[in-house]
Amino acid sequence: MIKILMYNIMDDEKIVVTEWLTHHHDVQIDWNTVTLNPDTVDLAKGYDGISTEQDNLIDDPIVYEKLHAFGIKQITLRITGYDTINLSLATQNNLKITNVPAYSPRSVSEMVLAQTMWLLRNLNTAQQRTQNHDFTWEGLQSREIHDLIVGIIGAGKIGSEVARIFKALGATVIAADPIHRPELNSVLTYVNHETIFKTADIITTHTPLLDSTYHLFDESVFQQMKPSAIFINASRGGVVDTPALIAALNNHTIAAAGLDTIEGEADIFSNDFSDNDFDNDDLKTILAMPNAIITPHIGFYTDNAIRNMVEISLHDMLTIIAGKTSEHELN
């Protein structure tokens, strides 16, 4: 019997796991609701494989050393982003790291569209007014999407789906990506970053968080954008210098921003602070801004995505436990 432990599981994932087990009688899966860290790593003792879905960093060497000592061969992430993992420590301890690079690119791309249209049609302002019984039209005139240029930073699996959606709506789509995919030639035009910053009406980013992309969007980049530009971040919080974004919104350097992620979200998003305070002043500032919207990192959160996250990660775990190679290995 293969024994698997799933850290930080969501209720929606439990449903998929339970169904999956009806077809895999030789596997035992246990779960918990804690993140993988030095205080919880001992829970993995006695298991053949583990997976987690978390934004908290796994950067303490003891985690990797103990997992190796327990005989575990991998850490499987049920998400796309892997900046939470220290790949060097994982490799040193013979731990294969996998992620789910395409659990549902459509889910995130539809969130980008939703945030874009909310901001483009000035629905923030309209909602605030109507809630106060103000039904006037002044200041609510918007542009139409087919007249606009959409710029995509990172046209991989998610970014290319974003491109297809906006192209279908009639927008002109441009993208910056080191890999040029011939199948996208009818959808977008590849350009450099500067062209996107200076010419796009809507700029959306879909890059991983790497040393090269940390604070990619800083003060100098926002200053290059049109005053009418809408900025969307549905990738990783650290891609954006948040104080620089706040200044750009306050100074009307850009028109609006939609965020599904923000720096410092790890201990806030997915938790209820209705009756408590949270420690992130930048987040509080953005929440109060009329020209910004923020959602709690739910771009991925659809039925198809949850099923794919669970099933792909379980397949990868069994593959590595069996001594084979997963196509999603990161090290």
TrEMBL record:
**Transcription regulation is among the record's keywords:** no
What are the entry keywords?
NAD, Oxidoreductase
Where would I find the D-isomer specific 2-hydroxyacid dehydrogenase NAD-binding domain in this sequence?
114-299
Q: Which Gene3D superfamilies match?
A: NAD(P)-binding Rossmann-like Domain
Entry's transmembrane regions:
none
Give the matching CDD domains.
Answer: LDH
Segments forming domain D-isomer specific 2-hydroxyacid dehydrogenase catalytic: 23-331
- Would you say which domain of life the source belongs to? Bacteria
Tell me which InterPro entries the record gives.
D-isomer_2_OHA_DH_cat_dom (IPR006139), D-isomer_DH_CS (IPR029753), D-isomer_DH_NAD-bd (IPR006140), D-LDH-like (IPR058205), NAD(P)-bd_dom_sf (IPR036291)
Signal sequence segment: none
Per the record, the similarity remark reads: Belongs to the D-isomer specific 2-hydroxyacid dehydrogenase family.
Protein name per its UniProtKB record: D-lactate dehydrogenase
